[in-house]
Amino acid sequence: MTFAHHCIFLVILAFLELLNVASGSTQACLPMGPRKNGMNINFYQYTLMDSSTYSNAAYMAYQYANEAKLGSVGGQTTISINYDIPCVSDFGTFSCPQEDSSDEWGFMCNNEFCSNSQASAYWSSDLFGFYTTPTNVTVEMTGYFLPPQTGSYTFRFATVDDSAILSVGGNVAFECCAQEQPPITSTDFTINGIKPWQGSLPDNIGGTVYMYAGYYYPLKVVYSNAVSWGTLPISVELPDGTTVSDDFEGYVYSFDDDLSQSNCTIPDPSIHTTSTITTTTEPWTGTFTSTSTEMTTITDTNGQLTDETVIVIRTPTTASTITTTTEPWTGTFTSTSTEMTTVTGTNGQPTDETVIVIRTPTTASTITTTTEPWTGTFTSTSTEMTTVTGTNGQPTDETVIVIRTPTSEGLISTTTEPWTGTFTSTSTEMITVTGTNGQPTDETVIVIRTPTSEGLISTTTEPWTGTFTSTSTEMTTVTGTNGQPTDETVIVAKA
Known about the structure:
By secondary structure, the protein is mostly beta strands. The protein contains two helices and 38 strands. Strands 2, 3, 4, 13, 15, 16, 18 and 22 form an eight-stranded antiparallel β-sheet that branches. The chain has a four-stranded antiparallel β-sheet with strand order 17-14-20-21.
């Protein structure tokens, strides 16, 4: 191509890019489902060494999907393609960049002879981690591009090997909320990188799209490789001059299809305004229902400011917000008072509550009488004050009248004991016992001690070998009939 022809080509290319900007507003989307990071990648079969099919615009737009689908992967943000075929040398197999290869004396790479052919199909996982034949395959990438700024975005293919297209917009890439549906038939490509029959493409071809921040724009890239190396570096220049190359993290997303969402498509974002109408019900202390309209601005799910109309319906609180409670008290009359408090009503709202409190005197049962025994000789009466918990669960002052009465005559007892003396002895002892009322009581015990009986002198006759009668006296201790140990005098006669 001569220099003059090259200049003419560049002028035409620039004019085509200008047409892309001036051809009307690009259709955007506002999908409402959960957002997923990255683009979806589908792989389709392509015949090795077929250098004509990928030159057909209809094939690159939608007919590729008629071929066998090999599989798919999702969540891809690095979307550029750079595949190198292997070189099988005497020193091992290694990846051979195209710029390091030559075919003057056969297939060579880095001055090493490669025994394999450039025209063969090779399997690898070099394309987005999917195991296929990058040497001969068609790849479809779909996702939503989310522009961070409003303005012109220029997408570019630095080089194309073999053929590729890029489309932006809901009416050319895929329909809004229908990313996973079969491809649409539009051939209105943002970048037309279709390799001409037996021709080649210039480097750094591109297309410009005016986009509005916060809207999602359908983005589709279709790439075909017929043999050997595969190359498709992708970049975009933002309105502020920033260039994003290869890795589109934070710019491309995916949504599950939702064909029932009626407001997903935004034909012209430049004139699109979003507004919502919501209704809320609030309780209030008035006696009638009040309806009012308020205007506010919110940030919607796609980060856009949206006018919201809020219809507020205020309804009176129910009669249950007036309650009556009865409490005991120590006064002698009934007291009524009104208190204000805030409670959470059945509608979950804080509600002012009027509480009427009726306080009534405590009952007569708060005066009790109790009788206790004591060691005095007269009856004693006293009054004590104490606090108890009444039947209503409230602490109550209680008056206790205590009557203390003398203990009975049974607390003076007489007991008789034997003793070895020769006369009767009487004594008085004081002890403490537990009375029949369970109280400790002083008891007076009169002890009468009497001499043991005459039976405590006894005579016994024993035989012996002597020639005369012998009489002797012995002292011993026995247990008497009263159970007491008693000294006994025994007169022993031996004959």
